[in-house]
Amino acid sequence: MSILELQNVEKIYGEKDNQVTALRDINLKVKEGEFVAIVGTSGSGKSTCLNLIGGLDNPTSGQIFIKNKEIGSLSRKELTIFRRRNIGFVFQNYSLMPVLNVYDNIALPVTFDRGKHINRKYIEELLQELGIWEKRKKYPDELSGGQQ
To answer: I need a labelling partner for 123 at 20 to 30 A (CA). Which of 1, 25, 108, 117 fits?
Structure first.
């Protein structure tokens, strides 16, 4: 079963004489548990593709399915909730809250889902796996770039 599927995805920026085709006819299937790397030269559309997959932008044409749900058909509110519950995105600028420690930065998205309790055991396991459990009380400015 595919956990991610792109069907004939195209992304065009600008209009008329200023149009730039960032992606054309992209088709991709990723099965659950599969590891995939998106590589290419600067300006080849990697970030555009990831922004579309992450629901941060919409394709000009084509469809993107995550867990068999076509994300282009979701309302903004539905997409926000779906993204929060199903998609992990690590930005180059980290987007960490400087006033929260490592543990609280990781727990923060869970608090946005009213009624959801924070699975402290899962967060501990995650921090252990990442090798930063001992840094859980540190603030972002106390970490290296890689740790952030």
So the answer is: 1
* CB-based contact 4:66 (threshold 8 Å): yes
The sign of the dihedral angle between the CA atoms of 133, 136, 140, 141 is negative
Residues 116 and 82 occupy one common structural domain: no
Tens digits of residue pLDDT in 91-139:
767 788 999 999 999 888 777 776 667 888 988 998 998 888 999 999 9
Domain interval for residue 41: 2-86
Please give the full DSSP string across 40-104, using - where no structure is assigned. Answer: --TTSSHHHHHHHHTTSS--SEEEEEETTEEGGGS-HHHHHHHHHHH-----TT----TTS-HHH
Do residue 103 and residue 140 come from a single domain?
yes
Give residue-wise pLDDT tens across range 66-79.
999 999 999 999 99
One domain for residues 18 and 53: yes
Strand partners, 29: 5
50 pLDDT band, cuts 50/70/90, is very high
